[in-house]
């Protein structure tokens, strides 16, 4: 039987472990804390699933396939992990990122619609959309209960036969293995799915250097009429802001996608900064003015692990030793489909995509709503 050690029980590691265990691998999953622990990126209360990715159709297809995966996973678990609230993209320009995305969705037959900004006003009372050219509506986009989904995936992985080892792993220099709290574990393959810890474990080349940044999220209390059914998710590409309506009574999420300060994932404070609340309220003033004075009802600090171009790392660093990381703040939604993709690579039935390699990366913004370079409209 083929054997693999996966290090890291965030959503990437747990999803991969589950997939491999269900396709004939003997799997050991090494995690230093409990799945869903507060330091991991996958412990965010919610994450968005959307298919629009500008001109990129690879991620659009992957997100669409992942949606199926989430729905199936929810059925298996007997709980709703994904709520299809739909998502509005507030387009300030006719020929911007949103219209390029719409073209890709059209090519891929992924449902979408062009709405007048007034329609957003009907969904969000008091909506401020005078500056908008149109709204791109993705009816099948929505909100994942991320932390819960990570814990559920870990539970299903365990039930599928994955052996969990609670330890901090270090690279094993003498072969395909890890040193887990001093004990050597070996297997045919090792996959390091270590999120923000990856740069501390491997000496990545300077031009691939991962940047770990602090990201604050805030949820605001909304009128009861806004809570059922939940209002849609939304994203403002030009303003680097996104969020979603109140789900499970957690308030409306309104958050900036702009990169925060460099962050230490283990020792950094998990209390949001006053500046982040100011930024969120500036955005409320512009788009959702009726919520300007709303109280913060929930907040969280998390971290992005960014590559320069926001493309992930899926690469064999040494014989049988794989790195899976650099999610760049847009990896959660893809997890079930990404797990299939990586399992196929480990099974030797799929080639690695060159874009995910350990090569020099050039700064680009197309995959995120924030970043170093100006949006090119695709
Ligand atoms: C504020 C914010 C908003 C986001 N919004 C979205 C969104 O809307 N949609 C979306 O798709 N994505 C979003 N993301 C990105 C998403 O959260 C991440 O892509 C995803 O959670 C990454 O999962 P991961 O498994 O790679 O990493 P993590 O969840 O961080 O897991 C890594 C795990 O590895 C473990 N580990 C590390 N080193 C070791 C070691 N040496 N030994 C043992 N264990 C180890 C850690 O303890 C941790 O549990 C967002 C991220 C943030 C911060």
Provide tags for this entry.
alpha+beta, D-Amino Acid Oxidase, Chain A, domain 2, eight-stranded mixed β-sheet, six-stranded mixed β-sheet, 25% helix, disordered C terminus, binds flavin-adenine dinucleotide
Account of the protein in words:
The chain has 378 residues and is an alpha+beta fold. It has one domain: D-Amino Acid Oxidase, subunit A, domain 2 (D-Amino Acid Oxidase, Chain A, domain 2), CATH 3.30.9.10. The chain has helices spanning 11-21, 57-77, 97-107, 117-123, 146-159, 198-201, 274-287, 335-346; strands at 3-7, 26-31, 46-49, 82-83, 87-91, 113-115, 134-138, 142-145, 163-166, 169-171, 177-180, 183-186, 189-192, 211-220, 233-236, 241-244, 252-256, 296-306, 313-318, 321-325. Helix 1 (11-21) packs across helix 8 (335-346) and helix 2 packs across helix 8 (335-346). The longest helix is centred in the N-terminal third of the chain and has 21 residues, at 57-77. The protein is globular. The chain starts with a strand and ends in a 32-residue tail after the last helix. It binds flavin-adenine dinucleotide.
Quickly describe the structure.
This protein has 378 residues and is an alpha+beta fold.
Overall mean pLDDT: 94
At the fourth level of CATH, the homologous superfamily is D-Amino Acid Oxidase, subunit A, domain 2
Morphology: globular
Strand content: 25-35%
Question: Which sheet architecture does the biggest sheet show?
Answer: 8 strands, mixed
Question: Spatial order of the strands in the main sheet?
Answer: 6-7-5-15-16-17-14-18
Helix content: 10-25%
Low-confidence stretches: 373-378
As a whole number of angstroms, the C-alpha radius of gyration is 20 Å
Q: What's the helix-strand series?
A: EHEEHEEHEHEEHEEEEEHEEEEHEEEH
* Distinct compounds present: flavin-adenine dinucleotide
Number of domain units: 1
CATH architecture: 2-Layer Sandwich
